[in-house]
Design brief:
Structural class: alpha/beta
Shape: globular
Distance between the termini: 22 Å
Bound molecules: guanosine-5'-monophosphate
CATH class of the largest domain: Alpha Beta
Strand order of the largest sheet: 2-7-1-8-9
Largest sheet: 5 strands, parallel
CATH architecture of the largest domain: 3-Layer(aba) Sandwich
Helix content: 40-55%
Low-confidence stretches: none
Number of strands: 9
Length: 206
């Protein structure tokens, strides 16, 4: 059976990765979404096991010690990580999975899964990004400033990605990502692998 695609959607905080992912989930119900572990406190309305697995620092350290995380990163004083087992089982079962993670973690995934599909979601402009982080109304001024300076560093890492998608409008951005997924499934190298296996099977039967 063909492996599923490992899709990494990354980009600066506030660019709209979460919103894009939740729209994609509705438009592509067969796409599996990786739920991260974090030491950050739950925001209002967030549900444990749905938005994140909320962990204490000790629990998170224990996951690292057990090698239970595919990648993890510290981001603005909190830790975030991708549970490994779920990702590996999903791909092995032939389903596509999407990880919505920050840039350092995305680069670590690329070291382990260079065949993954790495998509960078871009803000239309830095002014727009600041407005989005401020407009969320959940962060202090210090956190906003910290997130903005991290965002500028993150945008400089765009060169490591396969695709850049501007999030000017949610629907348009989702449409571009859907097109990338369709195109990735049509890649010649995936067909060549299938063809080689088919030829080997045919030769064995003959
Ligand atoms: P937030 O606190 O706004 O939910 O997330 C902060 C940042 O952490 C976002 O850029 C988000 O994409 C990223 N993030 C969420 N889960 C993970 C993860 O498992 N690993 C990494 N490296 N980053 C994550």
């Amino acid at each position: 059976m063909d492996k599923g695609l490992l899709i990494v959607l990354s980009g600066p905080s506030g660019v709209g990765k979460g919103t894009v992912c939740s729209v994609l989930r509705k438009r592509l119900p067969e796409l599996v979404y990786s739920v991260s572990a974090t030491t950050r406190a739950a925001r209002q309305g967030e549900v444990d096991g749905v938005n994140y697995f909320f962990k204490s620092k000790e629990q998170f350290q224990d996951m690292i010690a057990r090698d239970a995380l595919l990648e993890y990163a510290e981001y603005v004083d909190n830790c975030y990580g991708t549970p490994r087992d779920f990702v590996e089982r999903t791909i092995a079962s032939g389903r596509d999975i999407i990880l919505e993670i920050e840039v350092q973690g995305a680069l670590k995934v690329k070291e382990k899964f260079p065949e993954g599909v790495f998509i960078f979601l871009m803000p239309p402009s830095l002014d727009e990004l600041k407005q989005r982080i401020t407009g969320r109304g959940t962060e202090s001024q210090d956190t906003i400033n910290h997130r903005m300076s991290v965002a500028v560093e993150e945008i400089n890492l765009l060169e490591h990605y396969d695709y850049a998608v501007i999030n000017d409008q949610i629907d348009a951005a989702c449409h571009r990502i859907e097109s990338i997924i369709v195109a990735e499934h049509c890649r010649r190298d995936r067909f060549v692998k299938n063809l080689t296996e088919l030829q080997a099977a045919t030769t064995e039967k003959a």
